[in-house]
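Last lecture ended with a question: if I hand you only a sequence, what can you say about the shape of the protein? Today we answer it with a concrete record. The protein is tRNA pseudouridine synthase B. Below, first the input exactly as provided, then the predicted structure, then a couple of comments.
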Amino acid sequence: MEGILPLFKPAGMTSHDCVFRLRKILKMKRIGHTGTLDPDVTGVLPICLGRATKVAEYITDAGKAYEGEVTIGFSTTTEDASGDTVETKEVEKVFTRAEILEVLQNLTGEIEQTPPMYSAVKVNGKRLYEYARQGIEVERPSRIVQIYKIELLDDRETFSGKNVSFRFRVSCGKGTYVRTLAVMIGEALGYPAHMSYLQRIQSATMTLEDCYTLEQVEELAEKGEVEKVLKPLEDGISHLPNFKINDTVAEKVKNGALLDIPPHLLQEDGPIAVSQTDGKVLAIYRKHPRKPGLLKPDKVLRNDQL
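The predicted structure:
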């Protein structure tokens, strides 16, 4: 069995829990997820089966979209609703719609984020959440992330109360912490804040409408029909620039040969999908670091042995 299973991740399970459960349901070991979702977060989690595990990292690096809720008035250790309260400040002012929209606009584009202590980022070979569980605060490396668009999903003209909550939709690039984005929204409004709800609504080309629950997958497995709902691995990397080749070159690609960079890809610095005329992707290539004008294989996905 090979392909991508668009899974709806339920609340209360880690991404790894989902993989563990699917290995039992599908009776196969070669399964991988495409980017960690916190236990509280629900939504789109593409699961790679068989050969498709080779493209998991490229799906992880693709753009994602979320719908979330920020609550202003108190912050937490984990930056979401599951953490202990760190700071409380009763909201005494009335926020206008224009004020909130301005904050969201100012957080669009390239922004700098510091990963939360409760995250999987490694510092000195140890994950931040391991330090956090021991009560140790360490210096965290900031990162630049891309926020493509933030929309306010609330039609109120004014926002008031001891705690103020509103929903938003965000499209963002890899490495973005939406929990931290919620905190940053609060800071820009002058108050501690946290993310009180989050659902991933899209990952690469896959949306909520594509997804199946674990229970549905179990039913399909009992009928032997799981393969009917799998998406081809090409769907997971359709966001990558594409280089179509003929059958003669295809044989060379299957054996990991270097390729001349075609004119339309001269400006590309990231991964490139090399495909046959029938649309099947044979390999992922990148610019050769030492040989100008050439591409080298990053991963061969299909050859006569695979």
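Comments.
1. The chain has three domains: 3-62+204-236, 65-198, 242-300.
2. Residues 3-62+204-236 form a domain with the Pseudouridine synthase fold (CATH 3.30.2350.10).
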